[in-house]
Amino acid sequence: MQLKLIAMAAGMSILAGCATTSDGCVASDGDASLVTKLSCDVGGGYRARVDANEQQVLLDREENALLRDVLEQIEAQQHATQNELKVTRAEQDNLEHSMRWLISRLQQHTGEQLGLQQQLNSLEDKMQQGPQAGDSRSLEERQAHLKSLQSQVSRLQESLGY
Fold first, then answer.
1. What's the Cα-to-Cα distance from 36 to each of 8, 11, 21, 24, 31, rounded to whole Å?
2. Within 13 Å and on the Cβ side, how many CA atoms surround 106?
3. Over the stretch 130-158, which tens digit does the pLDDT of each residue have?
4. Under a CB-based contact definition with an 8 Å cutoff, are residues 122 and 153 in contact?
5. What is the total count of domains within the chain?
6. Which of 8, 63, 140, 161 has its C-alpha lying 20 to 30 A from 146's C-alpha?
């Protein structure tokens, strides 16, 4: 009779082991019974869970690498944009310096010629309206302003006969 009970208990534990899945096999679960732990170990539930976790770690590493690549590309674009903006600002500063020098020089040469003096004054006023350091105008607005200055300088050149 005892042998029947032992055989029946062993059979039930084997059947209980077949009923466990890898989701139910958590190695850190202290409340799991000895039969559940044995069935997880023998049935491969622990191994399946470890394999799934390792696969997830690999996928997370790949995603992390892709995110780092995207971040590096964004930083490279930011550096390129900042460098381009610095160059544009430096060129604009050089242009403004040259324009001021040209205006002062032309004012010395025009003397009493009223028409030319008015054009120079108008050009000087436009220079004063131009973008100042730290100005937040868009690049398009700055280009439009520079185009306006360019047309005035061209008219001035024609008036001077250059």
1. 17, 14, 10, 9, 10
2. 24
3. 655 455 567 777 778 777 777 777 776 67
4. no
5. 2
6. 161
